[in-house]
TrEMBL record:
Keywords: Cell membrane, GTP-binding, Hydrolase, Membrane, Nucleotide-binding. This is small monomeric GTPase. SUPFAM superfamilies: P-loop containing nucleoside triphosphate hydrolases. The gene is RIT2. PANTHER family: RAS, DI-RAS, AND RHEB FAMILY MEMBERS OF SMALL GTPASE SUPERFAMILY. Belongs to the small GTPase superfamily. Ras family. It catalyses: GTP + H2O = GDP + phosphate + H(+). InterPro entries: P-loop_NTPase, Small_GTP-bd, Small_GTPase, Small_GTPase_Ras-type. Its EC number is 3.6.5.2. Its main location: membrane.
Length: 217
């Protein structure tokens, strides 16, 4: 289910000419951010993923008959302010804030992320969607749909309940974020003046993530 809203963006282009969208996955460890991302890009559910690992993914899709190149950063950890998280929030164009409907604490942490983004970007006009994952585990649900809708209204953002295990509403969540970004694309924004800086920051961030992964192997 979905609550519509408006949002903002800074446009850039992938090498093939498609519009590139810098997407950041936010949420507590273990809520299914990586599983959602893997299902979106490869239609596969991972057998295991370390919730402390951060990773990057790329995929190209068509949304509303327009090509879209998604550069997705899957973050780890809790809703706390760190130097690396500040870089994510400065470089990202849109955010998917995730929680598990089976974990109330993850919902409480999700409620903090918009303020963390505001601390970095100094504006609430940032494209984001709120996602309640793991609805296939309805029998152990701790967060109601109504609570998710209420937080989405507070955020003035789109809301989806998903199941990464069943690949339910996964595409809807990512496509919904792209649509939110597109809504503000033609609107005047100071962020557009910072496009080159944001692209440089994003590349630096991806480079740091790559080095971190290499050091772990």
């Amino acid at each position: 289910m979905e609550v519509e809203n408006e949002a903002s963006c800074s446009p850039s282009r992938a090498s093939g000419g498609s519009r590139e969208y810098k997407v950041v996955m936010l949420g507590a460890g273990g809520v299914g951010k990586s599983a959602m991302t893997m299902q979106f890009i490869s239609h596969q559910f991972p057998d295991y993923h370390d919730p402390t690992i951060e990773d990057a993914y790329k995929t190209q899709v068509r949304i509303d008959n327009e090509p879209a190149y998604l550069d997705i950063l899957d973050t780890a950890g809790q809703a706390e302010f760190t130097a690396m998280r500040e870089q994510y929030m400065r470089g990202g164009e849109g955010f998917i804030i995730c929680y598990s409907v089976t974990d109330r604490q993850s919902f409480q942490e999700a409620a903090k992320f918009k303020e963390l983004i505001f601390q970095v970007r100094h504006t609430y006009e940032i494209p984001l969607v709120l996602v309640g994952n793991k609805i296939d585990l309805e029998q152990i649900r701790q967060v109601s749909t109504e609570e998710g809708l209420s937080l989405a209204r507070e955020y003035n953002c789109a809301f989806f309940e998903t199941s990464a295990a069943l690949r339910f509403c996964i595409d809807d969540a990512f496509h919904g974020l792209v649509r939110e970004i597109r809504k503000k694309e033609s609107m005047p924004s100071l962020m557009e003046k910072k496009l080159k800086r944001k692209d440089s920051l994003w590349k630096k961030l991806k480079g740091s993530l790559k080095k971190k992964k290499e050091n772990m192997t």
